[in-house]
């Protein structure tokens, strides 16, 4: 009986070691997956922000409705409804009334936070606004743009001036 217990104890210790090694290997693997996902997200979000923010914030009064409508698929569902309401109630009427042309240039981008499925980016933009008064207005500003990955596609979930 003693040999049997000794054998079972040895087997239990060996199984415990294998389980511990497996858990450690799994943890290291998952940590690597998360780290690589963050690196990829940082690179993707910086480029995506540089491409999309001028489209989202820039418009010309003659085509404001069409250009803003084309940006709606870039947003998550909740933010899309919020942006669409703001566009219909504020941006489009003001742009047409004052004949505004809003040009936006991204001059700097930096990832604030990045995970595999979420991220936020700090964006520095220069904006030039001109209207029927022909007077130009220049403004530099900072924005925090938050993204969420849905169905393998990065969508804007919020834009907040800082």
Structural description of this entry:
This protein is an alpha+beta fold. The protein has one domain (41-161): Nuclear Transport Factor 2, Chain: A (Roll). It is 53% helix and 33% strand. The protein has three helices and five strands. The chain has helices at residues 2-57, 64-71, 77-98, and strands at residues 59-60, 101-114, 118-130, 136-150, 153-161. Strands 1-2-3-4-5 form a five-stranded antiparallel β-sheet. A hairpin with a 2-residue loop joins strand 4 and strand 5. The longest helix has 56 residues, at 2-57. It is rod-shaped and about 100 Å long. The model has no long low-confidence stretch (mean pLDDT 91).
Q: Can you tag this structure with a few keywords?
A:
162 residues, alpha+beta, Nuclear Transport Factor 2, Chain: A, 3 helices, 53% helix, rod-shaped
What's the topology here?
Blueprint: H1 2-57, E1 59-60, H2 64-71, H3 77-98, E2 101-114, E3 118-130, E4 136-150, E5 153-161
Antiparallel strand pairs: 1-2, 2-3, 3-4, 4-5
β-strand percent reads 25-35%
Q: How large is the radius of gyration? A: 26 Å
CATH topology: Nuclear Transport Factor 2, Chain: A
The CATH architecture classification is Roll
How do you describe this structure in short?
Helices cover 53% and strands 33% of the residues.
């Amino acid at each position: 009986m003693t040999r049997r217990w000794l054998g079972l104890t040895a087997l239990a210790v060996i199984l415990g070691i294998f389980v511990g090694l497996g858990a450690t290997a799994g943890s290291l693997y998952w940590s690597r997956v998360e780290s690589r996902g963050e690196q990829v997200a940082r690179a993707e979000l910086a480029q995506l922000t540089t491409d999309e923010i001028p489209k989202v914030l820039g418009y010309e009064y003659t085509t404001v409705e069409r250009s803003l409508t084309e940006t709606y698929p870039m947003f998550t569902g909740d933010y899309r409804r919020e942006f669409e309401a703001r566009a219909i109630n504020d941006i489009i009427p003001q742009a047409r009334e004052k004949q505004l042309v809003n040009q936006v240039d991204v001059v700097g981008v930096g990832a604030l936070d990045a995970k595999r499925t979420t991220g936020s980016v700090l964006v520095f933009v220069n904006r030039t606004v001109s209207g029927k008064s022909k007077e130009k207005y220049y403004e530099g500003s900072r924005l925090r743009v938050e993204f969420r990955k849905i169905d393998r596609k990065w969508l804007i979930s919020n834009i907040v001036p800082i």
